[in-house]
Each structure stands twice: as C-alpha cells, then as structure tokens.
C-alpha cells in the first residue's frame, strides 16, 4: 500500500472517531492503527525468521525466480519469493543461486527492484 494512502486512512479514522464518539472514538481509532502496525511488524519478523533460516543466497529454482520478477517490486516481496537473503555482489547488486548453478542477479535502488538478469550455468545470460 502507498504510504500516503495508509496515512490518509489513519487520519480519517482519527477524525471520524473524534467527530462521532469524541475522545473515546479517537482512542478506538488509535487501537485499530496500533493493531495494524503490529500485524505488519509480525509479518516482517516472520519473513526475516524464514529467510534467516535458509542458506544465504540460495533459491530453489533461479529460472522460476527470474520469471516472477518485475520492475518496482519491493525488497520484502523479493525475499518472500526467494525464501532467503541474497548475497551482496556490489553496492546495489544481490545474487541468488540454485543447486544447478543457475543464478539471478538483481539491482535494487531505494528498496525496489530496478533490473535483474538470469545467469545460466552453461554461460548463457538473459536480462530484464
């Protein structure tokens, strides 16, 4: 979700709660906002626990990972697809490799996927 949309919804809930129920409505809206933030934090912690348990830079199938990538994808979504953290190759480049030797190299800027390329074990290279 766009951060501006989330902020707007939170402010709308606070204003609506205040207008309809007074200070109790504001407290109720704050409770909903805190609950939503806790859900997001729980999702992130579960993802990091799963990714931290897997070998770094490993992926089940690099070709399948490469086919599911698209420009603008968030880092969190990329880690969910890969199932592990990538190995840092350069300043903004990370790599995931499967057991067959195929690998996917991705370039991230500001936490978003900008470009990626598939490196096959036989030397053939495909790019985004």
From TrEMBL:
The chain crosses the membrane at residues 12-39. It comes from the Bacteria. Keywords: Membrane, Transmembrane, Transmembrane helix. This is Glycerate kinase.
